[in-house]
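For reproducibility, we list the full input for the pyridoxal-5'-phosphate complex.
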Amino acid sequence: MPADRIPLASPWTGDDELDEVAGVLKSGHLSQGPKVAEFEALVAEATGSRHAVAASSCTTAMHLALVALGIGPGDEVLVPDFTFPATANVVVQQGAVPVLVDVEPATYNLDPVDLARRVTARTRAVMPVHLFGLSADLDPCLEVAREHGLAVIEDAACALGATYKGRPCGTFGDVGCFSFHPRKVITTGEGGMVVTDDPALAERLRLFLSHGGVRAGGRFTFEEAGFNYRLSDVHAALGVAQMRRLPEILARRRALAARMTELLAEVPGVNPPVEPPWAVHAFQAYVATLDEGIDRDGVVAALRAEGIESTIGTYALSAQPFFARAYGYSEGRLPCSAATARQSLALPMFPQMSEDQVDRVADAVLAAVTR
Ligand SMILES: *Cc1c(COP(=O)(O)O)cnc(C)c1O
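The corresponding predicted structure, in tokenized form, follows.
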């Protein structure tokens, strides 16, 4: 790998992570234990949540949330079409139907008008996604949820540290779910977390997290057919160290994104990500949209030739074979999502990126689109 290659993302770890993991290995307690509890407390504090339950990924966290909320066969769950498939896959795994909703092109998030339109008598829940670290416009979505008595499960996979009207993403719904995959704001290798203010729900989440067992007098009785979705203390040790870096990680991401946006604002046909007045963006990813007529995949290839890694924003689920086959979706049913899937471009963004690297990326984008 040439030294001057710029990756899309790169986890930021150091001696603190090494020391924390070494401490767990020396302790001999590797499965879920005191480090998981410490990590949960740090995430609860950072988000201002009463309860935080660690899970093995955001996908398992969201599945757990659906189970604990009693979502199952016959239920419909509203999910944005433009998201990572995990958001809808967990609904399918519960035997419920994901109803795909179009997105707002500027924010990449749920379009509240289309959301209201897709509510039926079977709708039980809505899953707002805060894509790339930008909060969905939650107030109108929460209004739809209130009006129809829907549960709200926030997919905050990308949004640790992001806020909506001054309050942390993940704390508006019944539950909020975070990811600690290496491409997210902080990482534990693999990992996730559910936060909630509801003590009864937290208890149900913990029950299903670990086989459905309740411990009394040194033995378990199994009240439910649960899962093993636990995070290990080895992973949680990374999380504890990463949480200490969170303020610096967020500050770096925001400063680098501001610089990138200033440079890209001058490039014809390139629309940098927006930050509406009600949001603080966490910039888990830096995703711009190219005007129609610019060949996004051609830009990705041109950047690659310059040693710069870039990729698509994310997927339009309705265009994926499973969702087309299972629910009869076809191209054009969700036009804004389809256009965004075609024209969005994720550029390198990670806290240890240098200002010079930002400048190189912006120069290469300019060269690629004005070729
Ligand atoms: C990454 C991501 C997920 C999945 O998170 P995992 O921890 O990898 O399971 C879900 N939803 C969105 C929006 C994501 O970006």
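The chain has two domains: 15-244, 246-370. The chain has a mean pLDDT of 97. Both points were considered when choosing residues for closer inspection.
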